[in-house]
Amino acid sequence: MFEVTRHDEMAQGSIIRLDLNAPQIAAKARPGQFVIIRANEYGERIPLTIADTDPYSGTITIIFQIVGKSTALLRAYKAGDYLKDVVGPLGKPVEIDNVGTVVVVGGGTGIAILHHVTKAVKDAGNDIIGILGARSKDYIIMEDEMRQLCDEMVITTDDGSYGLQGFVTTALQKYLDERFDIKLVYAIGPIIMMKNVCNLTRKYNIKTMVSLNPIMVDGTGMCGGCRVTVSGKTSFCCCDGPDFDGHAVDFDELEKRNNMYLKKEKDALLFSIR
Amino acid sequence: MLDYDVKYLKFKTYLSTYCPHCNKSFNVKEKEHDVLVYKGIKDGVEMDIKLSPYLDVFEVETSMPLEQNSVLDDLLCPACNQSLVDPATACGECGSKVGKITISAYSKLLPFFVCLKYGCEWHGLTKADERHIKLKIPRQEMPEQDQKLRVHNFIEVPYGLTTELAQLEAGRCLQCVTPKCVGGCPVGIDIPAFIKLIREENYEGAAHKIKERNVLPAVCGRVCPQEDQCESKCVLGLRDDPVAIGNLERFVADWTIKMENAKQPLPPKRLNKKVAVIGSGPGGITVAADLSQLGYSVTLYEALHEAGGVLVYGIPEFRLPKAIVRQEIEYLRKFGVKIELNSVIGALYTIDDLLEMHDAIYIGVGAGLPKFMNIPGENLCNVYSSNEYLTRINLMKAYRFPEYDTPMPEGKNVVVLGGGNVAMDCARNALRCGANNVTIVYRRSRKELPAREEEVRHAMEEGIVFRLLTNPIRFIGNDVNWVKAMECVKMDLGEPDASGRRVPIPIEGSNFEIETDLAIVAIGTGPNPLLFNTTPQLERNKWGYIKVNEETLETSIPNVYAGGDIVTGSATVISAMGAGRIAADHIHQKLSGGA
Fold it and tell me: What is the pTM for the complete model shown?
């Protein structure tokens, strides 16, 4: 059993932050890794990327958007409640050297994960340009935390209610055109965003890393549900990832596979309401 | 003695008995049962002696109170009143006087003796004659759930032997002096001894006898391929069907589970030695149980949220009810084994971390990485690995969606690729999840199907279609990337390869399509790299399995042992348990300074 030590709601209650008491995981987890959570006996095993760790107090932080039954269920867990199972840290941690200037691009809830990754990028001694994007002002999360890590930062919103109006790619293109010292782009967010970022950077031939979040069951390489096509070959996101070279990832396939259970997800929600 | 179930008696070795003087039968119908009635004399008093006419049951009833072990003075035929006592013979067990009568058993007249000592069961039949009589009991079939009904539920298919059937089946065992069956058992269960205890109706004793060598009798009684192991060695099998050892094992194990108050051996005194076991599958459980029994403090690390490994995520409910596995795990826990769930070794702890905390480690992680065909379209939606399909349904209970949150893979025309036990499990699971047609596609012929005969029979009975000598070459998707068909090619068998199986060769131009909306790839598994990523010093062979000293199962890292699928590649539950036993022996030897 894993105690929830903190429960925060962001972006008008659509994004939840939970701190969990899991000292062993907190001691081991590196940026980029994820945990599998099963809230209760009936719950589904869902992968959630670790957004932060505090090895001293023994907690890990997860930040997630409410998209279906399982995330809605997790929202109900307040400080003092217990989650049945938390497994981790899974996946390969971010491996980054000092390459020079790195652009980190985050969209929506992806910003939470990006924050942890950015820490690793910073620790490696890189200069960081941050680009954060969301639907509107209310959906931009962790702005202050990101500002502390980034040397430059731009915010874009779809509706222009905050920062630049447009997508993250608009801002990114501007940087790619103006700056020639960018060696690496890190993009974490919705699949469509990562796909568009990759399509853009491919033209500039700049290596782009993405963090994928496919459907998983066990998260340890046993089920193969998380398989993604990378460079024409099947990879298991849980063991080989979750970070991949975005230029090699087949995003269309991933998007379709991730939508496999959309109807079931609705059934499950309806069932729980009833 | 008359309160026996009629059905029970009917199956016993029935004896027709005759007086050697007047040739009249002693068999008398009393109420609904037959009994043998003699006249006995004790201290000048005449009394009726009633004996059951069954070779295995020597219950004596007298019309006078008679003390156990008192000896009658004489035994008379009730018809001709002549003495039956045979002065030339004495009881082979207690030396008392005996009465001699004739029995007719299966068209053979044999002398049969009745010991005059009350309570003595000696009958003077030679082993050969006894066998001659007993051989005639056919092997008892286990009752099974109806094949039409069972495809709509997840209830276990075989019901298990009833007490009567178990008694009858146990009676078939010849109790060989040098039993061959024991040699066929990877963990060396004393099979004749536990069967003898069943005959004596000492089921608890029988259970303890099995548990001496095997900590998971309820599981092994169900999933072991006995036909290739103990039963293949049974002497009876030469001329008849072998004794149903597996079914008897299952009977005993289930009996103890039903009797909740069955005694559990107390945990032994703890030594100051710690052992970590990675993986709570059958191999890990065996190591944990064996070492715990010897007094070691054992911690079992399991990556998933439930202990049992393949027993909980792989083998379906209708073949191995999860409640049974839970019961067996509970037995371990009561024994003092610590079980750490949700602990992925290689992630949460490395082998080095564990070595700091423990004196020895056993790696029994199995071969958990699913293999794929590597053909086009394999990543289409609704193409699953057998591991994912079975895990969703068994471990996550997706068949009870939406009560349980994990969605169930659904399809009306299901194809399963592969011909092993796992393929059969997937196919039968799919039927129970509402598929209309389930097809197994296998590239060799029926003879080469690697699945157990019983599994193939069950699958066929349930209406699963077998497309043999057929190999898939690609999956075809629809406009939203869901699988809609599978293209296959017909195969022909060529010359035998290194494994002795004939190599399938595609027949050119024989391509055809099978319509499908759910495909399950069940073509085997390989070693999971997760553990090795953080332990590169652990030596492995060219297929990625761990290299071990074949005798001791020690790996290239001292005090780290490994066994089961992660050493041999995919095999059976019992072979993993066999490896666990060997490793436990050697861990004990090493830690106790014996070697």
Answer: 0.80
